[in-house]
Amino acid sequence: MSAARSEIRDGMQIEWDAAILVDDGIVLRADVFRPVGNGKFPVILNYGPYAKGHAFQDSRKFAWERMIKQKPEVAIGTSNRYQNWEVVDPERWVPDGYAIVRIDSRGTGRSPGYIDPWSPRETRDLYECIEWAASQEWCTGKVGLNGISYFAMNAWQVAALSPPHLAAVCAWEGAADHYRETCYHGGIYSEFISNWYPRAILPVQHGVGERGPRSRVTGEPVAGPETPHARTVGKESTRHHRQRTRAPSR
Question: Is residue 224, in this structure, part of any structural domain at all?
Fold first, then answer.
């Protein structure tokens, strides 16, 4: 199992794999980046399936190189060691007095459990993560959500549940209708999700362990230290995913 630990790096107090116990007994894992000291800070929180420790430069090499070529200023003024796909860079926000909380969604990265993207269970997890962050001694009690695509879709869903401490949502490029905007554009089947799941989710499913990528910062497997037999990882999640995305019966 992942073990929580804390250290100071690059001018930030970082808590690796902080434990978040949710209502069904699963322990989700979060990385927290905050200013050094005993202050209280508003939170920018992300909950998603791409492995919080997997560097943008490694997980989406082509996208990173294209971004740097077109917008070189993005890489200036930061070490880029903590860049992560579709979420904020802690080195830019922590100096301005924010705490950044990144959480591996259930069944991905270093969080155990059964992967079920955009499900009511995920939405409930995110609700509880918001309230967990708000209750921490280093938080002002105000939590905001910021993220692109997957993170935007989950933000809208959890906002409908009205978490007491959700203060703001900045949602970019999210689909509001899973059928029309994600799986069946104009009624025509789209292969995006069928390709996205095996390429973006299964490589960092919790439990791939040593077979998966490693963190540039800690050197540890981004999908947890456990490494069961390959045939036990991905099988059930893949079957469930196919059942949810196949064409409806006529």
Answer: no
